[in-house]
Amino acid sequence: GLGSRVKLLSHIKEEQKATLALIDISMFSEVNDLKGHAFGDKIIIECSKRLFESEVFGERLLFRVHADVFAVLSYIKNEKELEIAVKEFMSEDAKRAYVIDDEELLITYNAGIAEGCGEILAWCEIALQNAKNSKDSHAVVFASDENSIAKFKENLVWTSKINKALDNDGVEMYYQPIYNYHEEKIEKFECLMRIV
């Protein structure tokens, strides 16, 4: 079967350098909420089988990291080679409908890929989030350049500031009218949140 997140972390610590891909089932939570957890579990099982059966990754270890996030760990492929393999898997698998309880679904994926050691899982998670937010690519390789790391650190700082403000009632709401000049009346209001 699939290894767990804990098992993945132990493998990352044991090895000097590896290449990791996190593969996420697109829109899984929506399907799970709409169709129910039993239906969602069948999608997870089928996805697991397809990952095991796929030969595009070559020699690899497979893990289930979160509910609908799988990890492919390779000690052989570099970042570019694993990116190509992930894209090939995603492209080929998108053509094969999942049949769950006599219902056909086309499943798509997002992926984050990173190479290195130590913080490789965190880097993959950043790349996966970038893939989910990207309009152009469903598979993103982590860019370890200074700008990417600086942006990530800035996001952490702002997340901390916002959480502190929320915990300490340091957020105020301001309502602003939206005026419709054509009808010459206030049509609606927008709410602005400010940290004080």
Descriptive account of the structure:
The chain is an alpha+beta fold and 196 residues long. The protein has six helices and nine strands. The protein has helices at 5-14, 28-35, 37-53, 79-93, 120-133, 146-167, and strands at 18-25, 61-66, 69-74, 98-100, 103-105, 109-116, 139-141, 171-180, 185-195. The strands form three sheets. The chain has a five-stranded mixed sheet, sandwiched between helices. Helix 2 crosses helix 3.
Summary?
The chain has 196 residues and is an alpha+beta fold. The protein is 44% helix and 30% strand.
Total E-strand runs = 9
Number of helices: 6
- What proportion strand? 25-35%
Largest beta-sheet characterization: 5 strands, mixed
What value does the average pLDDT take?
Answer: 88
Structural class based on helices, strands and sheet pairing: alpha+beta
Keywords:
196 residues; alpha+beta; two-stranded antiparallel ribbon; 6 helices; 9 strands
Per-chain topology:
Blueprint: H1 5-14, E1 18-25, H2 28-35, H3 37-53, E2 61-66, E3 69-74, H4 79-93, E4 98-100, E5 103-105, E6 109-116, H5 120-133, E7 139-141, H6 146-167, E8 171-180, E9 185-195
Parallel strand pairs: 6-7
Antiparallel strand pairs: 1-3, 1-6, 2-3, 4-5, 8-9
